[in-house]
Structures are given as C-alpha cells and as structure tokens.
Write a structure and sequence with these properties.
This protein is α/β, with parallel strands linked by helices. The chain has 16 helices and 13 strands.
Length: 388
C-alpha cells in the first residue's frame, strides 16, 4: 500500500463511530484469520455485535468478508500502524500478537482493554520472551498449564494479576471435527505417510538435520511430506529451498508451503516434529502419534527455569510419542513402527489426555465470544461514567 493509502486507512478507523470501536480485532497476518473467523461469526451473528477487524496484510481473507455487523480495514506495517497502536481508542482490543508494548507496537495512550488469544497450547515461559504477556489485561488461556505459569510469574515478579479466562483452543476443536469427518482412502500396500512439520529457528529440524532425516525416511519406503513453518520460509528461505530441492524428483516426497493447509495433516499417519506446539494439536486432535527429533530446545527466555515449572513441550513428549536424537536418525523407522502399532490404544489415551489439559472442549467459541462481549460492555460502561 502507498503512503497515502495507509494514511487514509488510519483516518478511516479514527472516524468510525464508537459503536464500531467497542470491539476491535487486530491481525498481523492473514495466517491468523483461522484464529478469528469463528469468533467473529459468533459476535456478528448470535450475539449481534459490531466488530472492526484491522489487519496489516492486504491479502488477509478477512478483508473479503461481508456482514452488516462487520468492517475490515488494512493498516500495513510501518509508520501508520505504529500510530494506530499508540492512539487507538476502543473498549477492547483483541489480538494474537505477542510482546505488546515490548517492541515498536505500544499500548494506546487511551484506556483500552487488551485481550490476548493464545494461538497454541504451548507453555508461556520457555519458547516465548520472558515478558511476552506482561502488558495484556486479559489472557484467554488454552489449559491449566498456562494459568499456572502466568500466575507463578506474576507472583515472582510482583506483577498485577491479569484476568485469565479459561478459553480452550478452538483450533484443537476444529482439528478434532475434521479428523472425525475425514475418510482415509489408503489402498492396500500404500506406504505410511510421514509429515515433518517442525518449529522455526536455527536449531529446528530443517535447519539442522532435515535433509538426512528425509533421506532415511524415503529409503525406508515412507511417503514424506515436508511442511515448514512459515517463519522458516521468511527467515531462512535458502535452507528450506535447499532441503526441498534435494528431493524434488522423488515420487514419494511432497512439499507443502501453505501453513493454513490441513489436508497434509489429515492424510499423514504420524507427525515428526521438534519443539513445535503443533504436536499437541496433532496428537490430541487427530489422535495420532508424534516422533520428536531432540534438537536443542527453542529458548527465548533464558530465565525460564525460575518458575520451577517444566514446559508442556517437554512433559508431553513421552505421553504422545517417542524421542530420537539427531545423531541417531537411523532409529526413526523403528520408532515410527512402534508408535503406529496400536492405534486404538493410542486414541483412547489421547481422549483422556485432552480432557484434563484443555479448557471448554466444544464450547470455546461461544463462551469466548460471550466473554469478549462482557469485557467490552464493562469497559463501555466505565467509559460512559468517565464522560459524566
């Protein structure tokens, strides 16, 4: 977008009547649309609430949605997005963007209630920055582990207690539903399909041992799907291209570059990952096992051990799969065969696990939307009192 177009978009938002700024939802990227669309439909439809959706991605699917209670504006990265954050006037501001107020995007100078939606079931204190969640007013948590971690940090650092809502994980519910509806069309003798979908960073699978891992799996006779994190394509595109191109001519090798795509997840028999929280969604949602390649932990908080809580990314590994060292990749086929040997037993174990680890299974969207409305009404009433 041009400088003038970005200025017009900011001006358009600031000219909206308050009715359209009671609930503002912000998206950094169209990749986040799947986190928001069901909530927006619930807010616009059954709850009959107006929503202003602001995105910084001109290709965001949310810009194409039409509804009488919905407006979408694109304010791209740069000067006017920074200004938008600093002078935003709304009652509640909903986002999945971490590190509010820690970097260039600050809290508004006006009284705005910030609601953070966790986009994964992962822990809060190892993979993310130490203070990633300190500047939100409400956190919509996926499970009890996140509540424990946030409360422990508040206690240790003397932080004001945030409003923690037992939200759950709509993405997991979606995966569960899709898994139940999906009909596997494997023919007798078809090879197992192995999906490799790690996290991103210098120590992730594709950046360390991806090429050797894929070679071992292909030589074993598996069908292999390479599905890198979108941040890997942004930060180390040459690495991803190198691994992809090394196997491009193999009929049993497949590359998926779209992160929101789900067909590869459904078709696969097992996931190979590292420290990606996607492993939790895969195991508990599709009730399929995960093989973890034990690359170095992805740590953005060097003080994570202060909480005295082991991250769920670590504790979950032996409950949903097995662990193989990058130095022992020849062991992966045997581990895979063990993990897929008793699918019914594994499914039963995953159903029990998700009942204890995830809030509001089957109810996260209606309950979460109702909580957003409650907070918006509360803030609106406070705003009206200040005007009197």
């Amino acid at each position: 977008m041009s400088f003038f177009s970005a200025w017009k978009a900011l001006r358009k938002f600031r000219q909206l009547p308050w009715a359209w700024r009671t609930i503002v939802i912000y998206s950094e990227s169209g990749q986040d649309w799947h986190q928001f669309f069901a909530l927006i439909e619930q807010l616009n439809g059954p709850l009959d609430r107006k929503v202003c959706y602001v995105t910084s991605d001109r290709n965001d699917p949310g810009l194409k949605r039409t509804h009488g209670n919905y407006r979408a504006i694109c304010i791209p990265e740069g000067l006017f997005r920074t200004i938008f954050f600093q002078v935003c006037q709304s009652d509640v501001f909903v986002l999945t963007m971490m590190d509010l107020h820690n970097l260039q995007l600050k809290r508004s100078t006006y009284p705005v209630h910030y609601i953070y939606l966790f986009h994964s079931m992962g822990s809060t204190h190892m993979v993310d920055n130490e203070n990633s969640f300190d500047h939100y007013d409400s956190l919509f948590c996926t499970g009890p582990h996140q509540v424990r971690e946030i409360r422990k940090r508040e206690q240790l650092k003397g932080l004001q207690a945030k409003h923690l809502f037992d939200y759950g994980h709509p993405r997991l519910e979606q995966v569960i539903g899709q898994g139940r509806e999906y009909v596997q069309e494997d023919a007798p003798g078809d090879p197992l399909t192995v999906l490799i979908a790690p996290t991103w960073g210098e120590d992730s699978i594709f950046n360390t041992c991806g090429r050797e891992l894929i070679r071992v799996l292909l030589e074993t006779g598996y069908h292999v799907i390479m599905r890198p994190h979108y941040q890997s394509n942004r930060q180390t595109p040459e690495v991803i291209a190198g691994v992809r191109d090394a196997f491009a001519g193999n009929a049993r090798f497949e590359y998926i570059g779209q992160m929101g795509e789900t067909d590869s997840i459904m078709r696969s028999d097992i996931l190979v990952s590292d420290w990606s929280a996607m492993a939790l969604e895969y195991a508990m949602g599709l009730e399929k096992p995960v093989l973890f390649i034990d690359v170095p932990r992805r740590i953005r908080n060097p003080n994570w051990q202060e909480l005295g809580i082991e991250p769920i990314e670590t504790t979950i590994r032996t409950q949903v799969g097995e662990i193989v060292s990058p130095a022992s990749l020849q062991e992966t086929p045997a581990a895979i065969e063990r993990l897929v040997s008793d699918p019914e037993r594994f499914r039963a174990r995953m159903r029990e696990l998700r009942e204890t680890m995830v809030f509001r299974l089957g109810h996260s969207i209606p309950d979460g939307a109702a909580e957003i409305v409650r907070l918006a009404d509360e803030r609106s009433a406070a705003r009206n009192r200040r005007r009197q």
